[in-house]
Design brief:
Layout (H helix, E strand, L loop, with lengths): L16 H7 L3 H4 L9 E2 L9 E3 L3 E7 L8 E7 L6 H14 L8 E10 L2 E9 L3 E3 H8 L3 H21 L11 E4 L4 E3 L39 H16 L2 H6 L11 H5 L5 H9 L4 H11 L26 H15 L110 H5 L25 H7 L34 H30 L4 H31 L2 H109 L5 H4 L1 H9 L10 E5 L9 E6 L2 E6 L3 H20 L7 H92 L5 H10 L2
Antiparallel strand pairs: 1-3, 2-3, 3-4, 4-6, 5-6, 7-8, 8-9, 10-11, 11-12
Helix pairs in contact: 5-6, 6-10, 9-20, 10-11, 11-20, 14-15, 14-21, 16-19, 16-20
């Protein structure tokens, strides 16, 4: 029985690859599909079907017959069970058939596909793509930048077509990418493909580990499944187009990756390979940094291929390169989750163009309160001024309006005069219990009481409402009445000009003196009768004198006596009646009520002064809190500016260091052709020297004597001299001479004629010319590879240096962010403590204000009662007393 790996159809086990190979030797028996039956299977060296083993099965290459004669197909036979295989491949085949793009290869699922050991098993039938896999294609085109970049563009288009079709391949890797002989890139192996109709089934496989997201799991199955692996492949192609030497350095022979491995993607910050590959091409550093950031995020947060790298903002280190800004932003975002955002700090962001840090405006720790800093000061000459936010919002109590903090309108600016309960406008801050306040009213007693000898008068003179000075900034009663005409119904009784602006006493029914005794009444009547009788007698005497009816002297004396008696009696009776008037209970009650009214007025004035002091204290506390909030904002802005300056300085240092590395890299790239040319020249020089050294001096040309003579001078071969010159003798007895020279040395030879010297020079020149014709035009392969390896090592060194510079800058930036956060947290704690203290002071001031208001209301009620009592007794005058005494019963 064949070996199995998993349960198959109907509970039967699936065959192995060897079982399928044995069955496919007879295609007429094992296939019933019209295209495959009697087809030809590609054979291997041992005359067995050539098989390519995969994750879920074995793939055979079959040439069709019949109507499809000559066409080749890839037949995939399954060796493992896949849940819902039929449903999956039906949906995949339909999705591939309707998808757009040249990347696709039509696929057909055949449930009754291949017969093995008497049982039918399903197969997947695809057209065979004649071409090269990605790795062989890259090895063939390594160094052809245009071809590799064109392939990268094709890959990006294919991935975009997948995205627009709403499907995902599920296993993008080098083994599933084929470049056809026509140069078109195609994707194969659709076992793990996602289509919308399969969303609820989950993935059939998890893809190659060297290309997939480190965090990919069974729950990750959606249209964005290919994004991470697409970025890995696309970036690898683009960097190889620019730096082909990376392939020789980081692609091990037979390795299941391009440049990066699974461990490099799982920990990019700790991978030297990732640092070198990403730092080799500065124009791609931002995309590599984004890939490293996405490796630490959920799969569904990976962006689409082709999205531009976002520019770095202030939160990720302003002024830094994109890759470092992205990495720094990820570090900051990780730490941001532990911060507590304030409740009311959002309003301070607009003035400086950035969101304030989490600890800029600490929330109050008092339950039910919220710290709301006022907005920063603006130029008053600009448009409409921004209203200040109230420093405190407590429960349901209404916060002070903006006008309450205006220095020109003090909090305790209550209207003076009668009816202090005038309804305040929206710009006046009035305590809750301040409605219907009535100040002490110093009413003027009736004229009869002012002139009486026994009228009680106060030893303290109190100014009337018109004479009382108002508080600075406090509007007068007239101004209040004009500003608030609607407050009139809540005022006290109306004023009357006759009383100097004082309120008229309330109307009261005439009560009179009901407690007069009979004796008092008769005393008043008798006194009046006596005065009248004496007055009549005096008048009679005066009239008699006037008409001359009697003795003038006696009449004059009588009249004077009558007038004197009348005056004495009137005075005596007046004093007695005055004592009786003062002793009446009505007069005593009136005097007590008047004294109570004066005392209540003093109490109202004292309570009003205390109320003003409490309101001034509360305003001072509110101003202190506003000043503290302003100082907090100023300190936060200074801290932000200092942090931005530090980040700018760090970015400048990083840019300068990377620019230095880039300049050295450019010099290294420019020195390559020069080094190769110099190496070729050195090779030519060595070849010439070696060739000349192999040619000894020609004895048949020079003779043994000259050869021996030159040998003694160290000239043995053609390499020992460069030029031969002859000297013509100036006299017949002198012998001919020749000079053999080379750099740094000259040898004179006697007996060498000019013709012999010329033939020796020609002999050397012919050797040199022959050697030059045989010199290589290019460097030997080994020498060129050695130079390439040397430059590759220097490139790696520069890339590592750049990676170290970036890592150092990132560490410094992280330290700056940590210092910034620590300072912000310290400010937050200080702000919380100060807010608690200020809130306690505000609460104390509010309690004192409420107590003062209560005291004021009590004094006001007392003054009102005293005023009403005085008004009720205002009819108890001396004239009313005389009238009741004379006319009463």
């Amino acid at each position: 029985m064949a070996k199995v790996t998993s349960a198959g159809v109907g509970g039967r086990p699936y065959p192995t690859g060897a079982d399928y190979s044995e069955a496919l030797r007879d295609t007429a028996t094992c296939f019933e599909h019209p295209t495959l039956a009697r087809g030809f299977v590609a054979m291997g060296p041992l005359r067995m079907p050539r098989v390519v083993s995969g994750n879920f099965g074995s793939v055979f290459r079959v040439t069709g017959v019949g109507g499809a004669g000559g066409r080749e197909y890839a037949v995939k036979c399954f060796t493992r069970a896949v849940p819902d295989r039929l449903r999956r491949y039906q949906a995949i085949a339909e999705a591939v058939r309707t998808a757009r793009g040249r990347w696709r290869v039509d696929v057909e699922y055949v449930p009754r596909g291949v017969l093995v050991h008497g049982h039918w098993y399903p197969i997947v039938l695809m057209e065979w793509v004649d071409g090269s896999g990605l790795v062989p294609w890259l090895e063939e085109h390594l160094g052809d930048r245009a071809a590799i970049e064109a392939l990268a563009d094709q890959f990006a288009v294919a991935v975009g077509d997948l995205e627009r079709s709403g499907v995902a391949h599920g296993d993008l890797q080098h083994g599933n990418i084929v470049v056809g002989r026509d140069g078109v890139l195609r994707l194969i192996d659709y076992d793990g493909m996602y289509v919308p109709t399969l969303a609820g089934l989950g993935p059939a496989e998890h893809g190659h580990r060297n290309y997939q997201h480190p965090g990919r799991g069974p729950a990750d199955f959606g249209p964005g499944l290919d994004r991470f692996s697409a970025h890995v492949i696309h970036l690898s192609l683009r960097v190889l187009a620019r730096e082909p030497w990376l392939w020789e350095t980081y692609h091990e022979g037979g390795g299941e990756h391009l440049l990066l491995r699974a461990e490099d993607l799982a920990a990019p910050a700790a991978s030297e390979r990732f640092a070198v590959v990403s730092g080799t091409c500065p124009e791609l550093a931002g995309e590599f940094a984004r890939l490293a950031y996405w490796a630490g995020q959920p799969v569904d947060e990976v962006g689409k291929l082709g999205e531009p790298v976002a520019g770095a903002g202030r939160e990720a280190g302003q002024g830094l390169p994109d890759w470092l800004a992205e990495a720094a932003r990820s570090v900051r975002d990780l730490g941001a989750g532990a911060r507590v955002a304030p409740k009311g700090a959002a309003g301070a962001a607009g003035a400086h163009g950035r969101t304030p840090p989490a600890s800029q405006a600490p929330p109050s720790s008092v339950p039910g309160t919220q710290f709301v800093p006022p907005p920063p000061a603006t130029d008053p000459a600009r448009s409409t001024p921004a209203p200040q936010a109230p420093p405190l919002v407590r429960g349901t109590q209404s916060a002070p309006s903006p006008a309450s903090t205006d220095p020109a309108r003090p909090v305790n600016a209550f209207p003076a005069g009668v009816g202090r309960g005038t309804t305040p406008n929206a710009g006046t801050s009035v305590p809750p219990s301040s409605a219907h306040r009535v100040p002490r009213q110093t009413s003027t007693p009736p004229p009869e009481r002012q002139s009486g000898a026994h009228t009680r008068s106060s030893s303290r003179t109190r100014p009337s409402n018109q004479a009382r000075p108002s508080t600075p900034g406090q509007p007068s009663a007239q101004a209040q009445s004009q500003a608030h005409p609607q407050a009139a119904p809540h005022s006290a009784p109306p004023l009357h000009p006759r009383h100097g602006g004082q309120p008229q006493p309330h109307a009261h029914p005439s009560g009179g003196f009901s407690s007069l005794s009979r004796r008092t009444r008769w005393t008043a009547r008798l006194s009046l009768a006596a005065v009248l009788a004496l007055t009549a007698a005096a008048g009679t005497c005066t009239a008699t004198i006037a008409v001359g009816a009697g003795p003038p002297l006696l009449l004059l004396i009588g009249a004077l006596a009558a007038f004197g008696t009348t005056a004495a009696v009137a005075g005596l009776m007046h004093r007695r009646l005055r004592r009786a008037y003062s002793a009446t209970p009505e007069v005593r009650r009136y005097e007590d009520a008047n004294a109570e009214r004066e005392q209540a007025g003093d109490a109202v004035m004292d309570a009003l002064r205390q109320l003003g002091d409490c309101e001034a204290s509360l305003q001072t506390v509110h101003q202190a809190r506003a000043d503290f909030a302003t100082a907090q904002l100023a300190e936060a802005e200074a801290l932000r500016v200092r942090h931005a300056q530090d980040c700018d300085a760090l970015g400048k240092r990083l840019a300068d260091a990377l620019e230095s590395v880039e300049q050295r890299r450019e010099l290294l790239e420019a020195s390559g052709p020069r080094e190769e040319a110099q190496a070729l020249r050195d090779l030519h020089d060595r070849a010439l020297r070696d060739g000349l050294a192999d040619n000894a001096l020609p004895a048949d040309l020079l003779g043994s004597r000259l050869v021996t003579q030159l040998g003694r001078e160290g000239i043995l071969t053609a390499a020992d001299f460069v030029r031969v010159t002859s000297a013509v003798p100036t006299s017949p007895h002198l012998r001919a001479q020749a000079t053999l020279s080379r750099p740094g040395r000259t040898v004179r030879v006697d007996g060498m004629s000019p013709a012999l010297a010329r033939r020796l020079q020609e002999w050397r020149d012919e050797i040199v010319e022959d050697l030059r014709l045989r010199l290589p035009a290019t460097l030997p392969y080994q020498v060129a590879q050695e130079l390439h390896r040397k430059r590759a090592g220097q490139r790696i060194g520069l890339a590592r240096e750049a990676a170290r510079i970036r890592a150092t800058a990132l560490a410094e930036l992280t330290a700056l962010e940590a210092e910034f956060d620590t300072t912000q947290q310290a400010r937050h704690r200080t702000g919380v403590r100060e807010t608690v203290r200020v809130d306690a002071a505000v609460q104390t001031a509010e309690d004192a204000l409420q107590q003062a208001q209560k005291t004021y209301d009590q004094a006001l009620n007392r003054a009102t009662a005293a005023r009403d009592a005085c008004a009720a007794l205002s009819a108890t005058t001396y004239s009313r007393f005389l009238r009741d005494a004379l006319l009463g019963s």
